[in-house]
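Section 3.1: Structural characterization of target chains.
Under the original work plan, the team committed to producing a structural model for every single-chain target entering the pipeline before any wet-lab resources were allocated. The record below documents one such target. The sequence was received from the expression subgroup and is listed exactly as submitted; it comprises 360 residues.
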Amino acid sequence: MLNIFGFHITILQVIATVFGIGLLIFIHELGHFLMAKAFKLKVEAFAFGFGPEIVGFTHGGTRYQIRAIPLGGMVKMPGEDIETSTGSPDEFLSQKWYKRLIIAFFGPFMNYVLAIALFTTVIYFWGLTKPSPLPVIGQVMAGFPAEKAGIKPGDRITEINGAPVSTWENMAAIIHNFPEQEVKLKITRGSEMVFLEVKPRKDSSTGLGLVGIVPSIDIEKVGFGEAVYLSGKMCVFQSVFTLKYLGDKLVHLQKPEVAGPIGVMQILANAAKTGMPDLIHLLAVISVALGLFNLLPIPLVDGGHIFMALIEFVTRKPINKKVIQVSNFVGLGIIVAIFIFATYSDLSRLGLDLGRLMPK
């Protein structure tokens, strides 16, 4: 048993987490590799993992490798960046704009394909989870009024202030109307009838009363076709929601909540502990996030290559080498800033006193 970021997990769960992350990155690189080969572009190496080679072989001019650290993969093509490009016709940057666009696009595209496959696996084999419409408590949030009042998971609220409730929506609407006011609950707990009082906390942003309860979860079995369809919808929803969230934070100049490498490992460690369906579902969510990030028009990532290719298509001429160098420098700065911000957020959530870590 190991302790990782406060979560006690087994060696097997650590292995599952590490290989899960490796799978996401490897599938991404596989997309680039397949399209490079389809366009008969020279690929010097294609590897699973990083670090020194453990085993490998050469075929068709490409070195296929398994490397020591199973955290991703690598595709090495000649002339991938402007600094090493010589203008040779077999280099990446020497290809026509649409070939570069497709090669760059297929990395994120494969992340979406993987996400759909993972979501489908969870939905088809374990079932589709959705909140129950009944006023049955699935989870009580720590530190909220419901916990202090003695409400427990499995409780079914039947009356509030003497008024009968039959649905979660009806129950929530009543509680929302009584911020900072005592409400009386009639609860069915197994074969018992329990009477409790709870004082909803006033939400600072909405003004609604909250007690900190989550509905129970129903599981519905669906066919394979519907599982694939729902998985596609989940990918679209997550992508649109993320873009809207980031856009709103940018417009209002607010700090977004993001997870960096430490945060992702912490979340994965928790998911690995709770069970395989949760781990697979979370890997699907991360795969969508990885694909979406790489589609953003940031120089050095796939979206930057796609954006440059589209500019070349519109202008009908190659982009100036100096422009590419400057944009790559800016892109590197953006990526480093995102990494530092995300890591800072991770450490803050872990409760570290970051001020004490800074040099005086």
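The longest strand covers residues 45-59.
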